[in-house]
Specification:
Helices cover 40% and strands 15% of the residues. With 211 residues, the protein is an alpha/beta fold. The protein is globular.
Length: 211
C-alpha cells in the first residue's frame, strides 16, 4: 500500500462529550461548525454516565439523555452516538474513553471538541497531557475579542499542545446552557427556539425536568 492510500484510509473523527442534559441547539451548531470547518468524516457524541451525586429530577437518566441526543442528531448522517461511558463503573474520565476509542479506531485521527469554559480549565483535567498526545483540541469563542485572546493565550501556554493541533472555530455562539433550558422548562417557558422539536416533544411526553 502506498503512503497516499494509507492517508486516504485515515479518517478524521470528532469526539464531542458531555452530559447533554438536555442536548440543545448550541451543541448541534458547534458540532456542525467543526464538521464543516475541519471537514471531519464524522462526529461521535458521547453522553456521560449518570454522576452519583445527581439524584434529583434536574438530571435526566442516561437512557433519556441518550434518546434525546439520538433524536437531535438523526438527520445528519455524519453524526453518531456512543454509549461507551455508560459501560464503565466508577468515574468516567475523558482519558479512559479515548484509550478505548484508540483501540477501536487505531488508524484514525481524533479531534476533541469542547466548550470555551472547559478549554480554559483543560490543564486541570485528569491526565490532560496524555489526552493531548492522542487528539487535536478544538474549541470556539463567543463574539468577544477579549475572550478569543484569552483562549489563544491559554492555548500557547498549555504544556503538551503542539503547534498545529489546536483549532479555534470562529462562528456565532448560541448563548444558551442546558441548565437555563431546564429552568425554563420547569417554569413553563417556551424553549422551542433552543432545542429541536423532537427533543422538546420527548421531554413533554416523558415529563422530564419537572414538566
Amino acid at each position: 500500500m502506498t503512503d497516499r492510500n494509507i492517508m486516504a484510509d485515515k479518517k478524521k473523527i470528532g469526539i464531542f462529550g458531555g452530559a447533554f442534559n438536555p442536548v440543545h441547539n448550541g451543541h448541534i451548531a458547534l458540532a456542525k461548525g467543526f464538521l464543516n470547518f475541519l471537514e471531519l468524516d464524522r462526529i461521535i457524541f458521547i453522553p456521560t454516565a449518570n454522576p452519583p451525586h445527581k439524584t434529583d429530577r434536574s438530571f435526566a437518566s442516561k437512557e433519556d439523555r441518550f434518546n434525546m441526543l439520538s433524536l437531535a442528531i438523526e438527520d445528519c448522517d455524519r453524526f453518531e452516538i456512543s454509549d461507551i461511558e455508560f459501560q464503565r463503573q466508577g468515574k468516567s474520565y475523558t482519558y479512559d474513553t479515548l484509550c478505548v476509542l484508540k483501540k477501536m479506531y487505531p488508524d484514525d485521527e481524533f479531534y476533541l471538541i469542547i466548550g470555551a469554559d472547559q478549554f480554559l480549565t483543560f490543564d486541570m483535567w485528569y491526565r490532560y497531557k496524555d489526552i493531548l498526545s492522542m487528539v487535536n483540541l478544538c474549541t470556539t469563542a463567543r463574539e468577544d475579542e477579549a475572550e478569543k485572546a484569552k483562549i489563544l493565550d491559554f492555548a500557547k501556554s498549555l504544556e503538551g499542545l503542539d503547534e498545529g493541533r489546536f483549532f479555534l472555530l470562529n462562528q456565532p455562539v448560541i448563548k444558551v446552557s442546558s441548565s437555563e433550558i431546564r429552568d425554563k422548562i420547569k417554569s413553563g417557558e417556551d424553549t422551542s427556539s433552543l432545542i429541536c422539536p423532537k427533543v422538546n416533544k420527548y421531554i413533554v411526553e416523558k415529563r422530564l425536568y419537572g414538566v
